[in-house]
Amino acid sequence: MGVVDGMKRFRLAGVVVVFVVIVAACTTETKDAPLVILDKEGAVAIVAPDGEEVGRFEPQDGAQYFQPIWASADTVVRAQIAPGDNRLIATRVGGEEVWSVQFATAPFFYLASPDPAITAVVSLRNNDQAAGLIAEVVDGSLPVEVVGEEAPFYMTWAPDGAGLATHAGGSRLDVRTTTIETIGDPTGGFQAPVWLNDGLVTLRTEGVRTFLAVWDGESFTDVARVRGSTRFVGAGHRVAIQSTVVGNENGIAAGAHVIPAVRPGPLNVVDLEDGSVTVIVSEPIPVFQWDSTGTRLLYLTLVDGPDPSVAWRVWEDGEITEFEPFSPELSWLQVFGPFADQYAQSVSLWSPDGSAFAYPAAVDGASRILVQDMGEELPRDIAAGVWVAWAPRE
Q1: Most buried by CB count within 10 Å: which residue of 145, 212, 286, 296?
Q2: CATH of 150-282, one of 3.30.930.10, 2.120.10.80, 3.20.20.100, 1.10.287.3510
Q3: Closest by Cα among 279, 378, 262 to 323
Q4: Global pTM?
Q5: Which H helix or E strand runs over 25?
Q6: What pLDDT is recorded for position 190?
């Protein structure tokens, strides 16, 4: 069965979609921006911040949905996992299918283009024709555009969607705009570059030294010296970065006399405008994510307790707001945590205006989605679920 035939058969068989049309909740004003949720049964729900369900996508028999994301303020992309019918599906909140594309293997990560004029994602899946992975741009047209087959690990879109960078194999960065350019300087380690308005933020290796650097399309500007295995996320003009010590490495290098050094261990914030480095917290942080403006940094800390317990903290210009400990939804944390730097670009835990954040938690043994308003002490329980992403601004 070909892709086109599969699409026709898929539409005839139909996915059972149940919609409750609630006009007020479908708006994308900041205070009403919906959340997309995945439940344990593999169904996808669109939920307003007050918990009212706006729409629901039920998988067909024998299938389940996987990790829904927002392609725009009114369009959700989700993977379907089913024997012989793995797909990526884009659907409007109101129920209209934008496209549905079949694959030999199930996509397990996808990142939406920020271009509001198109509904497109770059996706990652196991290569069915060779060993390794394959990265493809999916926009409903056939055949899909292959953008990497060697070992594409991480991808990032330009802020306007006009370019795409693919980090391949821990050593190469391919940048696609009107042409394809491979950046000559080795890119350091296994990392998730992020494309900001300031430029393409990545790691750059020179001999034994590694730098957090910004590529402007022609050359690198080194921002800070780093040591060890490094993860970072960016928004606005800021980058939050944490390095893990490898062996007997220590943090301060000779290069610190010229540019700042990011010391292994602490979570740091690097300001790309003034070059300053601020230490936020010293312990290892499994998840950290900026709001859309790079003003508030959400991070997850481990806390002592008889059961696995964690707590959210929010850093904003030197002030830290602490929230009550909770039991994490372990399936979410085990998937999201190790790749939180890449998920920070595809899944926003933050509301569009940065006034609240959402997350999965274990509540009395059940998997629930909680919403924490910045001005409140305790979160509110809005729905059952194991995965959540907040819609972006319209």
Answers
A1: 212
A2: 2.120.10.80
A3: 378
A4: 0.88
A5: helix 23-26
A6: 67
